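Predict the 3D structure for this chain.
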Amino acid sequence: MRVAVLASGGGSNLQAVLDACREPASARVAVVVSNSAAAGALERARRAGVPAVVLQDHRDATEILSVLRRHRTELVVLAGYLKLVPTEVVTAFRDRMINIHPALLPSFGGKGMYGHHVHEAVLASGATLSGPTVHLVTAEYDRGPIVAQWPVPVSPDDTAETLAARVLAVEHQLLPAVVLAAARAGGVVRLLAGGSAFTVAADPARIAELAVPAGRIQSQEE
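Done. Predicted structure below.
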């Protein structure tokens, strides 16, 4: 499966996907796209020998679609991409575009909820669990059907920085697991842990081992 990764920042989740998609994986990163020429994700792509593209205008659906189609994209992965994807692009890749969010949606999502803003909101709420969510992308921020989640405990002495680090370690396992499961199934599938329910990820390295496909995701229109 040919994967396009969109990223705005340093690209640590991109790196996790690149590492998981080394031969003989069932998926490969075909192109990395960013709205920022300064994004560290672009250098990660270049080091991996993957084409890296900087958008002239992230609001231009025609430009984005041209890049994705030129690289024969089958799955689009938003990995720290901070711009709203144009509706025309979402429509063209309906059920084939996923995003990873650093909280347990539907809580702590929406416009402006990214990075430290998310973790600060989690701590301010008094929640005892956080963790990443992978979901299908729709025309609204963080509103698409959930593909996978993995709870991460919030410690009483956590700061936004310590919580972010703990959640990010799980993101680096969960996102590649979703991508590889989609490649094997020929489309995005919901992942469950242990075949029934999620457990707190005390050991993030076990996520790929425990997560199993649980059926193809249906879009909100179905």
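The domain at 1-93 is CATH 3.40.50.170 (Rossmann fold).
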